[in-house]
Amino acid sequence: MQVFKFGGASVNSADAVRNMASIVGRYRKEPLIVVVSAMGKTTNRLERLVPGVTPDKPLRDTLFAELVDYHQQMACALFADGGQEELQARLQTLFDELHRRIELPATNYNFDYDQTVCFGELLSTTIISHYLNHIGLTNRWVDIRTVVRTDSNYREGHVDWAATQQAALRELADTDTLVVTQGFIAGTAEGHTTTLGREGSDYSASILSYCLNVESMTIWKDVPGFLNADPKFFADTVKIEQIPYNEAIELAYYGASVIHPKTVKPIQNKGIPLFIKSFLAPDDLGSTIGAYRTIRPLTPLYIFRNDQLLLSILPKDFSFIAEDNLQTIFAALAETGVRVNMMQNSALSFSLCIDANAILLHRLQELLRPSFRLRYNEHLQLITIRYYSQDIIDHIVAGRPILLQQRSRTTTQLLVKN
Q1: Which of 42, 95, 172, 351 falls 20 to 30 Å from 308 in CA-CA distance?
Q2: What Rg, from alpha-carbon coordinates, does the chain have?
Q3: pTM confidence score
Q4: Which residue from 245, 177, 171 is spatially nearest to 211, judged by alpha carbons?
Q5: Which residue stretches of 159-263 are H helix?
Q6: Using CA atoms, how far apart are residues 251 and 261, in angstroms rounded to an integer?
Q7: Is residue 405 part of a domain?
Q8: Is residue 227 classed as helix, strand or coil in its secondary structure?
């Protein structure tokens, strides 16, 4: 058995879905689980439809209409020769459920987020499953929320591994049928939807790979493999042919966009190889993450995170930053679900580099302001360089002031104006 994961870019048009289907068809001779993300930029649009995010109803209606139109056009293009009546009925049910959800009053942002954005994956897999059946690739659509179980930590659910493995073995292990299911989303024992963190479809595939002890896992991307830098920033990138598990974990933790940070550890525990291949050139070798001793080739690796914010936290009574203050700060971070990308403290202040999210920042400020003074800088870029040199740092920073910097023997992180 193998697990394939296809991201939004691989299914963002009718031609892309046809290409994905041709790749799936090549491997149909053996049991295959296909994990699919939302189509294109659907999750971005759904994030704007979370209750409370877009109070303006006409704008909300426009965003919803655009989402409906996009998926209906996709269905019509894929079923140009007819036969989409059953699909359209299922899509309409999902559109009706989504519309009811986005018109509810805002309650808890993290909860509302998960109940809303899950529709991206439900819509994409519904369309793809029906299309694969239509072209003769018989498959079974599975609601992953009944398999991957988490706690109620909305927007980044913690997996209940025992319950998930039991469900995966029951629902998926003995099948020789092609399975189509969703990435990114999961479910609680109470029946609520959770998500596994932004871009979490890779992690979904890894969870299933671990629970089912599969032969291999493959992530299909629009790049030729694991590159040493994002080609949007670098013209001359280098493809990494092999990456040790631990190296991949480090790179994902720092924000390498090719894989979700939690993806590698489960498959490392089972010794399952992870292939990163291009859906544009499926015959190419791509990159492999596995039980290697060294990365090959050894070259500097660059990771860029835009839309960063530097939050400086200072005690109101000018006391030192000590364990009691840190306890308060980390409790607030945990309650709001704010992810810290870099942190540093001095005697009188504690600095955090975080993603710029206005709603979460506002809530974090509410929790911290009774005890602390807050200052922040916006529109920043966090640069991580692995296997750096001073010449490389000088070239990348290009004279911009460095607001925060950390170095180890192999890795440096620099926060600069974007």
Answers
A1: 42
A2: 22
A3: 0.86
A4: 171
A5: 161-171, 201-212, 245-254
A6: 8
A7: yes
A8: strand
Are the beta carbons of 39 and 120 closer than 8 angstroms?
A: yes
DSSP 83: -
Per the structure block, which two tokens stand in for 24?
A: 């799936």
Amino acid at 170: R
- Asked if the structure places residue 65 within a domain, the reply is yes
Is the same domain home to 198 and 347?
Answer: no
Number of domains composing the chain: 2
Sign of the alpha-carbon dihedral angle for 358, 363, 367, 370: positive
Per the listing, tokens 């991206």 go with: 120
Q: Name the CA dihedral angle for 245, 248, 249, 254, rounded to a multiple of 10 degrees.
A: 170
Q: Are 141 and 180 in contact (CB under 8 A)?
A: yes
Per-residue pLDDT of the chain (418 residues; tens, 9 = 90+): 999 999 999 999 999 999 999 999 998 878 999 999 999 999 999 999 999 999 999 999 999 999 999 999 999 999 988 889 999 999 999 999 999 999 999 999 999 999 999 999 999 999 999 999 999 999 999 999 999 999 999 999 999 999 999 999 999 987 778 999 999 999 999 999 999 988 889 999 999 999 999 999 999 999 999 999 988 878 889 999 999 999 999 888 888 877 888 999 999 999 999 999 999 999 999 999 999 999 999 999 999 999 999 999 998 886 777 788 889 999 999 999 898 999 998 888 899 999 998 888 999 999 999 989 999 899 999 999 999 999 999 999 999 999 999 999 999 999 999 8
Euclidean distance between CA atoms 47 and 315, whole angstroms: 34
Contacts of 110 (CB under 8 A, 6+ apart): 154, 155, 337
> What residues have CB less than 8 Å from 338, skipping those under 6 apart?
354, 355, 357, 360, 361, 364
Strands (E), 269-360: 274-278, 287-290, 301-315, 340-345, 350-355
For residue 408, give its domain range. Answer: 301-417
**Cross-strand pairs, 217:** 3, 274
CATH (domain of 321)? 3.30.2130.10
What is 34-79 written as a DSSP string?
EEE--STTHHHHHHHHSTTT---HHHHHHHHHHHHHHHHHHHHHHT
Residue 108, CA distances (Å) to 24, 43, 385 in order: 39, 19, 37
Same domain (yes/no): 190, 333? no
State whether 204 and 313 are in the same domain. Answer: no
Cβ neighbours for 253, distance < 8 A, ≥ 6 positions apart: 261
Does 386 fall in a domain? Answer: yes
